[in-house]
Design a protein that fits this description.
The protein is an alpha+beta fold. It has a domain of 110 residues: Ribosomal Protein S8, Chain: A, domain 1 (2-Layer Sandwich), CATH 3.30.1370.110. The protein contains eight helices and five strands; from the N terminus they run αααααβαβαβαββ. Helix 7 packs across helix 8.
């Protein structure tokens, strides 16, 4: 009877209550970049550490670099060099002298200047012509003439000059400054000369004492020219 009671009271799991159950720790989760940046303590420390490492690497790599003294001397000279003074505007100075009357006006620099040289002939010829280096053998003055009268006078004058074998002639046409229609005669003479270029070597505005922009020198093809 006693053996039966001990068999019925057998409790093999009674000691489990006294045992402490140790559960395995959960694996640590990796923090996302957003969580790392949100941490106000660890982020600046990591950034400062990285900067220190970069600085250490830089100084280690630059340890063998030597300074070039010549560059330092050039830099010192550049610092000591004085800034250049502003250069005067020569064009404005020349214009002021022209306005004051102390310098002459170059006719060749104006919009009224006339110049042409036949192809195959050096342009220096028209420049020499403008300077008055060729003797004028005959001249005609078209002032006061109406356009048709001036055209007939011009044609007759040029035919006569060619037939006489003249080399250089002068045509006075004026500048038309007082004309309400502008330089009519001057523009007409330019047109007439352009139509007879086959008989001319060159033409250019006269020098000031010979009429300047109000007159034109003309070189006729009386003989074959070279250069």
């Amino acid at each position: 009877m006693k053996e039966k009671d001990e068999r019925l009271s057998f409790t093999p799991f009674a000691a489990l209550n006294k045992m402490k159950i140790v559960r395995p720790a959960a694996p640590a989760r990796k923090k996302s970049p957003a969580q790392l940046s949100a941490n106000p303590i660890s982020a600046p420390a990591d950034e400062q550490t990285r900067k220190n490492e970069d600085a250490e690497l830089f100084y280690r790599e630059m340890a063998s670099v030597q300074e070039i003294k010549e560059f330092r001397e050039l830099d010192r000279k550049a610092c000591k060099a004085k800034p250049r003074a502003p250069q005067p505007d020569n064009a404005m100075l020349e214009l002021r002298r022209i306005v004051e009357g102390t310098a002459p006006i170059r006719i060749s620099d104006t919009g009224e200047y006339v110049e042409w040289t036949s192809p195959g002939i050096s342009r220096e010829m028209s420049r020499r012509l403008h300077k008055g280096e060729f003797a004028v053998q005959d001249a005609i003055d078209l002032h006061g003439m109406v356009l048709e009268e001036a055209r007939e006078a011009f044609s007759g004058f040029m035919r006569h000059a060619l037939s006489c074998g003249y080399f250089c002639v002068k045509i006075v046409h004026g500048r038309g400054l007082r004309s309400p229609h502008g330089p009519v005669l001057k523009e007409a003479v330019k047109l007439w000369l352009s139509r007879m270029r086959g008989s001319l070597w060159a033409y250019a505005s006269a020098k000031p004492r010979d009429g300047g922009l109000g007159a034109t020198y003309v070189i006729l093809r009386r003989r074959k020219l070279r250069g």
